[in-house]
Amino acid sequence: MPFVERIRGAFPDINVVVEDAFGAEDKVVLRWSATMTHRGDHLGMPASGKSVRMTGISITRIRDKQIIEGWDNWDQLGMLKQIGAYASPQTSLLKSA
Hints:
25% helix; 3 helices; 4-stranded antiparallel β-sheet; single chain; elongated; alpha+beta
């Protein structure tokens, strides 16, 4: 999967912890957290060497013991801020004043 290759290429030491897991009918929900270090350039920018902590929720639908659909919600903007790839416009304006 290209997405997984990019994330692992940027954060080779990713460590995911399942905080909560539950299911109903054909769906399973995970609340997770991850810690990692930005050590690769697979996000289109040089590695920053910065540590990142983020959280997310993943939902999967299962049929015949296989995942057939999935949805993820995680703090991508928070990750970009932590590695220095994004600064909010207000922060940028305050620095230039």
